[in-house]
Write the structure tokens for this entry.
Amino acid sequence: MKKVFSLFWIYLVLLFLYAPILILTVYSFTDATMIGQIRGFSLHNYITLFTTPELLQMIFGTCLLALVVALLSTLLGTVGAIGAFYSKKSTRSVIELANQIPVVNADVVTGFSTCILMIAFFRIRKETYFPLVIGQTALCAPFVYLSVLPRLKQMDHQLYEAALDLGCTPSQALIKVILPQIVPGILSGFMTAITLSLDDYFIATYTKPATFDTISTYVVNATRGSQTEIKTALWALSAIIFVVVTLAVVGMNYSSEKSEGKNR
Amino acid sequence: MKKNVFSRRQLAVPYAIFLFLFVIIPLFVLIYFGFTDENGRISFANFLHFFGSGKTIGTLLYSIVIALCTTIFCLILAYPVAFFLAKGNFGRKQVWIMLFVLPMWINFTLRITALKEILTVLEGNLAYHPFFNTVLCMVYDFLPFMILPLYQALCKLDNSLIEAALDLGASEFQVFYKVVFPLSIPGIISGVTMVFLPSMTNYVVLDMVYNSTYIMGSLIGSYFSSYDWNNGSVISVILLLMICAVTLLSERFTKQEQIEKKSVLK
């Protein structure tokens, strides 16, 4: 009885989380302009999605931005975490406190404060993309820092000393001994940075050039308009992202399970 | 030897500078703009304007109500899920929890669009139930953020405590509210902070379901579109203070919990 209820509840919440996306995915393969209409199979939405320059530019721009931001934050966050880990305790706690600010802060406030600093105070032009990239990096780098730090704590520290004793220079020891041990943390930090950048709406709206759109800002603007063609093409985009995310998560879990199996 | 240690420390410098320039300085600029008028003179008019106007206080209250409802519904939906997954005997827990966390990775505007399309069919016109739709979409958006910390907290909970309570004659309900619930409070708190604050500020959800009432975030949005940096900063500073308060409170609470747990074990 208890098991029945718990399964019922779990499936109910899963239904709530997945039904809208799944229904939209099914409808993306039809000509319907609204959910509920019954129409035949069609790839119309996918063709629109991949042939409208505006949509393609927006998708490509979002991905490129996410990649640049993620690379930059991974570099900053990883190097910062290594440096902070070996710093004095007081220095480290100051860095950690500052690092915590973007993590707990509301995105609206992070975005607005970046905008104020760059655009109202220093009068940097949005068209340079500098405020946008730096704003998102300031959000993402702390998460990279947080995912690298636990790996540093788990690491075997005698290996570094051993490498030095065996004649490595400090930078060699860093690259050949420390770095390989924290790769899982760096990778998961990189993935977090990618998702945060892809998901970000607020920092993007407050700092992006007027002509540039990310998926988030584009979708929000599209819901205000009433272009059916674009609206249903976005269904196709949701379907694709859903499939890509599912494959990525399944793949990551599979590979981590496999490597755990090897370690045993 | 001393030189080597020094060189590793130096790696912290670029990140520290970055954090200082783009995380700390913006907060000071916010405070500066909050306490000055358009001409750069020091003034408290912006704050008086916020606290003196019934409209803005109404906005504050409305966002608290929205956030409270969202948090409560998330908790009601998420707690049983987290509990069953952590304590029930379902095989392959990793896969189950992954299923609940996966939506977090899909762009939130696209997910809300999906729910919105369904709601449009069910309700006919979204404008009839703005409050309900807003809360529903927020719950939909933030639910994974509630499930994950609850699940982690409940996984840490030692099963032998539950068994001991049952052996000592506690009913299942007593076990829940005297053992399981108190020990899961750190998870609840971290889940609540992850849901409550964003749902006070994420005005995009309201925009998307055509709810024209303002929440705190919408104020920042509208001041941004009218280039009113000073009033926008005031709202940001107020939100920052609230975030600080909540974070400090929750940290204190979870630390106290840890201390209590330790003293129980001794």
